[in-house]
Amino acid sequence: MTPLDAPRRPGIDLAAPSDEPAGRTRFGVVGGRGTRLLAGPPRSQGREALADHDRRLPPLDLGWWSPTELRDEIRASGLLGRGGGQFPAATKLDVAAAAAGTPIVVVNATEGEPASRKDKTLLELRPHLVLDGADVVAAAVGAHEVVVYLHRSRGRSTAAVEEAIQQRRLGRPPGVRMRVVDAPGGYVTGETSAVVSFLDGAGALPRRTAVPAAVTGVGHRPTVVNNVETVAHLALVARYGARWFRESGSPQSPGSTLVTLAGAVGVPGAVAETLGPVTIGEILATVGGLDTPPRAVLLGGYAGTWIDGEVAWRTPLERHALRAAGASLGCGLIAVLGHDACGLAETARLLRWLAGQSAGQCGPCFLGLPALSAILDEVVAGTAGRRDLRRICDMAMSVRGRGACGHPTGSVGLLDSAIETFDPELRRHLRRQSCEAAPGKGYFPLPADYRVRA
Ligand SMILES: Cc1cc2nc3c(=O)[nH]c(=O)nc-3n(C[C@H](O)[C@H](O)[C@H](O)COP(=O)(O)O)c2cc1C
Ligand code: SF4
Question: Ligand 1 centroid vs 187 CA: distance in angstroms?
Fold first, then answer.
């Protein structure tokens, strides 16, 4: 018998947790009909209390599963991690469960992408869904301890999670120990090895490690680091099962997906949940308020991939299809560049920020990214020529794939895709012609305390 055929826990029917017939809704926002993670009260009602959460969803009866059965069900769901790397959730759990020592679970709630809001939305509005998911991960690997790794400066998220932990202490039988740990600021502090290093009492710096954290991480214990959205999905997989989970998404990338819109859209920071086949254009028209394709779309985060606006408009918003097109949905960011902005200037601005986020440990990253950023600044200023473009390409080659973490490779990917997508603008800049678009308009948000490294 496969997990998909396994008998369901009595009392729970397999209908979608909404009154919308499964499969009909293709996307929605907080409180929208047919949504899964975003289902429940509208945003205006704020965070959902434990009593309301318990009224809305069936109980999470983890005693019904053995850890192996739970991991089998998660494997059957096909859930891929939503932290950017799309790593199969079940594989990480299997590795941790098989490793020596008692595992520890870390909910990675740093959301270091400046424009991304999906994890904050879940933490602030559905904290119990996230904590239920952490309970599921703990049960699947036999952990007794959960750490929510979160910037305390994010006041609303912290308050919601701390209040939710307190409500569970008072309103639930004693279970897994949960605590919030104040993560340091910075883009790379959310990378798994940096998380482990910080929780071990050292700096939140990425480390090149031969052995994954799921085998040996915090205090040499098996450590499962999962993104907020990943664990929230698990809270529903454990209630409704793998078959239900797979009714949304695609066979290669099952389940719903949260996305954040940024830049030249009606409401920057809007979060939507995609459930069925939908193109980027449909999301931008319905949630983003656009009538026509923009100049370009940056997908997956600031170290993501630019796609021409016309192409993006008709491209399915589906992880597998995007990967086939050379892009990645990454953390789910869809950042929109209007026709009034210069994509090269915006890229130069983002690359300057990314260069400043290097942890300063690896030469190709610490030295290479600022050097690339400086040349791109010259291109944008109209003071660079064709020779400089060749220098960019040579230098990019020596940075790509180097360093202890994915930061330099992601940053170079942004640059590569900008050179391809903004070829007409690049030619104009290299001919020292003025750019018709507003230079460096600063469409995409950067952290307020951001300083360019001297
Ligand atoms: C530079 C860098 C920054 C990252 N920042 C985050 C982050 O802020 N939040 C997050 O969940 N994952 C982040 N990740 C991905 C994590 O390393 C890790 O893959 C993820 O938390 C695992 O969760 P998942 O398996 O649920 O996707 C980052 C990775 C890199 C290379
Ligand atoms: S590659 Fe860059 S960000 Fe990653 S560890 Fe090295 S210096 Fe730090």
Answer: 10
Pocket test for ligand 2, best of 189, 191, 362 (most atoms within 8 A of CB): 362
pLDDT tens sequence across 156-209: 999 999 999 999 999 998 899 999 999 998 999 999 999 999 999 999 999 988
Pick the residue with more confidence: 7 or 211?
211
Residues 267-302: tens digit of each pLDDT: 999 999 999 889 999 999 999 999 999 999 999 999
Provide CB contacts within 8 A for 264, sequence distance 6+.
Answer: 290, 294, 336, 337, 338, 341, 443
- How many helices (H) and strands (E) the chain has is answered by 17, 10
Residue 230 in contact with ligand 1 by CB distance below 6 A = yes
List domains and CATH numbers for the chain.
3-246 (3.40.50.11540), 257-337 (3.10.20.600), 343-430 (1.20.1440.230)
Phi and psi dihedrals of 123, rounded to 5? -65, -40
Please name the residue whose Cα sits nearest to atom 17 of ligand 1: 191
Q: Ligand 2, residue 191: give the atom nearest the CA.
A: 4
Q: Ligand 2 pocket by C-beta < 6 Å: which residues?
A: 188, 206, 358-362, 365-366, 403-405, 407-408
C-alpha of residue 193 to centroid of ligand 1, in Å: 10
pTM: predicted TM-score of the whole model, two decimal places: 0.94
Interatomic CA distance for residues 42 and 52, integer angstroms: 13
